[in-house]
Amino acid sequence: MLIEVLSKQYEKCFAIMREAIGKYDNDIWYNCVDYKSPTWMIVYHGLFYTNIYCSSSEIEIEHWEFEREGYNDHKVIRELINKGDCITYSKTEMLAYLNFIESRIEKYLSKIEPEKKCWPFWYDETQLEFHINNLRHLQHHIGEIIERHDIKMDFGYIWK
After folding, report:
1. Facing residues of 126 across strands?
2. CA 104: distance to chain centroid?
3. 72: closest CA among 51, 58, 54, 102?
4. Helix (H, G, I), strand (E, B) or coil at 126
5. Are the beta carbons of 125 and 137 closer than 8 angstroms?
6. Which of 22, 34, 112, 120 is deepest in the core (most CB within 10 A)?
7. What's the pLDDT tens digit per position in 54-80?
8. 24 vs 91: CA distance, rounded Å
9. Which pLDDT tens digit goes with each residue over 31-55?
10. What is the third-level CATH fold of 2-159?
11. C-alpha angle 123/53/105, rounded to 5°?
C-alpha cells in the first residue's frame, strides 16, 4: 500500500512537471538576465535531486548519462553563466531526464524500508519521511516554474 501511494504521488508530480515544461517558450526557458536562475536550471535541480533521493542508498543511484558535473548546484551554474561557459539543457532533454527517473521509480520504491534511517547522513529522517521531503522539494520547484511563466494548468487529471 505504501509503495503504491508514494508511486502515485511521484506520478502526479511528474505529470505536472511534464505539462509545465511543455508549455514553456524558449525565451523564458533560457532567460538568465531577468531571473537569477534560468528555468531549465530549476527543472534540472528538481529532477536531479528527485532521482538521487529516490534511491535507497548512495550506491544504488542510477545516474542519467547526460548529467553534467556540478549542474545540480545553482551557484556553479551562475558562475558558468557569468563566464559564458554554461551548456544549457533543452526542454526535450529535461523531458528525457524526467522519463529516465519515472522509469526507475517503482524499482527505487520497491527497496524502501519506511522505518529505517535514510541514507543521506545530513538528514535525520526515516526513509518514509525522506520520500515525503523529496516530493515536497520537487513540488516546490514545480510551483516555482509554473508561477514564473504564469502557466495555466489543467489539473483535472491529477485529482482522479
Report:
1. 117
2. 13
3. 51
4. strand
5. no
6. 112
7. 988 889 899 999 999 999 998 998 898
8. 8
9. 888 888 899 999 999 999 999 999 8
10. Four Helix Bundle (Hemerythrin (Met), subunit A) (1.20.120)
11. 145
